[in-house]
């Protein structure tokens, strides 16, 4: 049985030093291929305008742009420092014209209804102050038939895997944050319960190697 959730933060990652350390970590995850790009493509997110919730440094959305044509990504991010970093990284990728980063929270996103063809988020679910409100916002901003994919860690992961990942997490300065994030993550049952109370119409929750993934359409 999983231990109770311990809420981590609802303010995102802020402060230049902390953001720089997280950027190093995110680059390592990107370079190892530990992101959801292949899964996004597999479920049919291959075209259109995508919303990324909590993009952080922006690598998931930027890598998705690399593998798709005539697509755009708008990121909704609570941390001003992360917004600056994502914009910098988008410029280094050469994707200034295919990206936009907006300050906001998932609970009250600053977008019109039925704006996006796709919505995805990787690694930020455990920080959402009110997940049901975010799910409702995803339903609101998606076009009819639009797809969504939300992936994150899973609190009830096998302890051997938990500590194995801890041992290889770099830079080492990020390891305490890894543990607090894992303690704030959801189990599959908890997430299914939250989703059932939202206005998302079609969803499925699957356990992954280290986490869980919610996919569906509106």
TrEMBL record:
One of its GO terms (biological process) is methylation. GO terms for molecular function: methyltransferase activity. Residues 51-150 form the Methyltransferase type domain. SUPFAM superfamilies: S-adenosyl-L-methionine-dependent methyltransferases. Signal peptide: none annotated. Keywords: Methyltransferase, Transferase. InterPro entries: Erg6_SMT_methyltransf, Methyltransf_11, SAM-dependent_MTases_sf. This is Class I SAM-dependent methyltransferase. It comes from Fusibacter paucivorans.
């Amino acid at each position: 049985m999983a231990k109770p959730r311990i809420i981590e933060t609802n303010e995102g990652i802020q402060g230049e030093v902390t953001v720089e350390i997280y950027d190093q970590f995110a680059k390592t995850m990107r370079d190892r291929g530990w992101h959801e790009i292949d899964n996004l493509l597999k479920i049919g997110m291959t075209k259109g305008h995508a919303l990324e919730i909590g993009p952080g440094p922006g690598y998931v959305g930027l890598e998705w742009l690399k593998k798709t044509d005539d697509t755009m990504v708008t990121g909704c991010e609570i941390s001003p420092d992360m917004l600056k970093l994502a914009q910098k990284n988008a410029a280094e990728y050469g994707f200034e014209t295919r990206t936009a980063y907006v300050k906001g929270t998932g609970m009250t996103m600053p977008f019109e209804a039925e704006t996006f063809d796709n919505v995805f988020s990787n690694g930020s679910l455990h920080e959402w102050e009110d997940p049901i409100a975010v799910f409702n916002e995803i339903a609101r901003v998606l076009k009819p038939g639009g797809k969504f994919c939300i992936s994150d860690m899973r609190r009830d992961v096998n302890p051997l895997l938990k500590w194995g990942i801890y041992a290889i997490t770099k830079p080492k300065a990020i390891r305490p944050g890894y543990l607090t994030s894992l303690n704030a993550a959801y189990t599959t049952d908890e997430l299914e319960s939250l989703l059932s109370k939202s206005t998302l119409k079609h969803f499925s929750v699957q356990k992954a190697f280290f986490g869980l993934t919610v996919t569906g359409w509106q």
